[in-house]
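Lab meeting tomorrow. Please check the following:
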Amino acid sequence: GLHIDLLGEPHVVRVGATSDPLDLPARPDIVMIGAKAHDVGPMVNATTLDPRLVFSVQNGVGKDDVLVERFGRDRVVGCVSMVGGTLHRPGHAAYTFTGLTYLGDVAGSSPGGAAEIAALIDATGVLGAEVRDDIESVVWSKAVLACGAMG
């Protein structure tokens, strides 16, 4: 399982996760991508994945464009996560900052995907999610915040 220190308390969580997308079934229901932005294009283009919904939690504007190009606009959910963590080693991470994850249906996508994913996140009882009609505004707001924080 995945070992997570949640604000100082250790937890072990069983998750269906992989670092190799070729290990996934051809038609996963929902795919969450948590890779560096420059790795996403090559990663998704090297697979035959055909998910019902897909979203990316990495920072940056334009990140959803890669997903739209590969999977089609109707399957992509916009996402901005305001949480923080530290990777101690593969399979062991610490959750260090408790913010919300914002989700929104991107323009032209099938409505309801953001609400469905937000409900799954909320069901963890640890993380919180909020659906926003203006997800692009949230993406840009975080980008501006990151520029100010990182220089």
